[in-house]
Each structure stands twice: as structure tokens, then as C-alpha cells.
């Protein structure tokens, strides 16, 4: 009786969703988002979709589930203008409803999508404390012996002119980068001119040496004149 040969079944590989593990962290020009109590509270309350979008704007990828929140809290700004421009392109491709929760997180009050995208990218370029952070810090340290009206008056004065740290704007950084590039170009040009001048000096020196080392015609002596006369007479005969 013939028995069927059992063939080995091929194992079909299953691939993941394409999310790359690990995110390159870098030092930006602003504060880490986790250092702001108000921002940290807002991030903790964001939906998963908003967290993924925020991570994409910061690092241009979705990130790993176990590391995404930490990556966002450690974010302190973009490395350069190119990263900001990439974030703007990502934000422009998503709907206005998806951007609004992030604008609310960073106290951005514009209603037009283009304005929201610009302000959001500007804030992420160099994050800073919110006015709500200053209010919270003041409430935590205010004098309980003073009456409520006096405390409220101080809070309003503080919010009117908060002692915020000077933040970099993308335009200022762009100008700094352009000036640095101009300096590098000027330095390269001066080095090139210096090398050209040195080459000219070497060429002139070599020419002088060649002129000096040329063989000079020997000065004719009396014996030499006599020999030439004899040769000329023989030729004449």
C-alpha cells in the first residue's frame, strides 16, 4: 500500500507595522517639555492618536509604545530649521481637528489651520514655560498671611509681564546660520587667495633660479681667436 509523502509546510514570515525601535534624542534650544507641570499634565491626558502625532512632529516617526511618552517629555526643541520645516509638512497633511488638541496643550489660540501650524512649529522649535506655569509657581509660593485680593492682584501683574527666559525664534537662528555660512565662505576665499599668492611667489622664484642657472657662453680667449682664424683660412683655401 502506497503512503503519501508528507511535505514540510513553509512558514510565512509575519512583519511588524514598520515602526522603528529607538529614537535619537538630542538637545534643543528650549526647555524639556517634562519640566513644565502644565504641559506634563496635558500630555498625560492626550489620546493615543495625539501622542503619536506629537511624536511624529518632534522626531518624524511614530516611536515605540513603551518609549513614546518619555521621548515627548524629554523633547527640548528641534536641532535646526530643517527639522522644523519637516514638522510643518507633517502638520499640513493632517486635519485641523487633529492639530487642535496639540494647540490647546501649548496655549495656542489661533483658529486658522495655517496659523496653528506655524505657531505650533515655532513653539516646538524652542519650547518654553507657559503663562499657566508662572501662575502655578506663584500660587505655590504666595504668602498666606495676605488677603485673597492682594494675592490675585499680584498674580495678574505677574501674568501681564511674566519673567520668561529669552527664547530663540526660527528667524533668528536662520540668520545666525546664514552669517556662520558667510563667515566660512569668506574664510575659504581668503585661504584660497593666500594659496594663490604663495604659488605666484614660488613661480617667480623658480623663474629667477632658472635664469641664473642657464649656461653662459664662454668669453673668447686669444688662443681661441687664433684657432678660429686658422680654421677659416683652411676653409677659404
UniProtKB/TrEMBL annotation:
Biased composition (Acidic residues): 162-180
Region (Disordered): 159-237
Residue spans crossing the bilayer: none
Positions in coiled-coil regions: none
Start-end of Basic residues biased regions: 226-237
GO cellular component: nucleus
MF term (GO), any: histone binding
Protein's GO biological process: chromatin organization; regulation of double-strand break repair
Compositional bias annotation for Basic and acidic residues: 192-218
PANTHER family (UniProt xref): DEK PROTEIN, PROTEIN DEK
Protein name, entry field: Protein DEK, putative
Source species taxonomy: Eukaryota, Amoebozoa, Evosea, Archamoebae, Mastigamoebida
Amino acid at each position: 500500500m502506497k503512503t503519501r509523502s508528507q511535505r514540510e509546510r513553509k512558514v510565512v514570515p509575519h512583519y511588524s507595522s514598520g515602526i522603528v525601535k529607538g529614537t535619537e534624542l538630542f538637545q534643543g534650544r528650549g526647555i524639556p517639555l517634562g519640566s513644565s507641570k502644565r504641559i506634563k499634565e496635558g500630555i498625560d491626558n492626550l489620546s493615543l492618536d495625539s501622542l503619536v502625532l506629537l511624536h511624529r512632529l518632534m522626531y518624524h516617526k511614530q516611536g515605540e509604545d513603551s518609549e513614546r511618552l518619555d521621548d515627548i517629555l524629554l523633547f527640548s526643541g528641534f536641532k535646526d530649521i530643517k527639522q522644523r520645516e519637516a514638522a510643518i509638512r507633517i502638520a499640513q497633511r493632517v486635519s485641523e481637528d487633529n492639530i487642535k488638541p496639540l494647540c490647546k496643550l501649548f496655549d495656542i489660540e489661533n483658529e486658522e489651520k495655517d496659523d496653528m501650524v506655524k505657531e505650533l512649529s515655532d513653539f516646538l522649535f524652542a519650547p518654553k514655560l507657559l503663562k499657566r506655569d508662572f501662575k502655578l509657581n506663584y500660587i505655590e509660593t504666595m504668602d498666606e498671611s495676605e488677603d485673597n485680593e492682594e494675592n490675585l492682584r499680584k498674580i495678574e501683574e505677574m501674568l501681564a509681564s511674566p519673567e520668561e527666559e529669552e527664547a530663540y525664534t526660527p528667524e533668528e537662528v536662520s540668520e545666525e546660520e546664514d552669517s556662520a555660512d558667510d563667515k566660512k565662505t569668506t574664510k575659504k576665499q581668503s585661504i584660497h587667495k593666500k594659496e594663490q599668492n604663495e604659488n605666484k611667489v614660488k613661480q617667480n622664484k623658480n623663474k629667477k633660479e632658472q635664469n641664473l642657472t642657464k649656461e653662459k657662453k664662454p668669453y673668447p680667449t686669444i688662443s681661441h681667436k687664433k684657432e678660429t682664424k686658422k680654421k677659416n683660412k683652411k676653409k677659404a683655401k
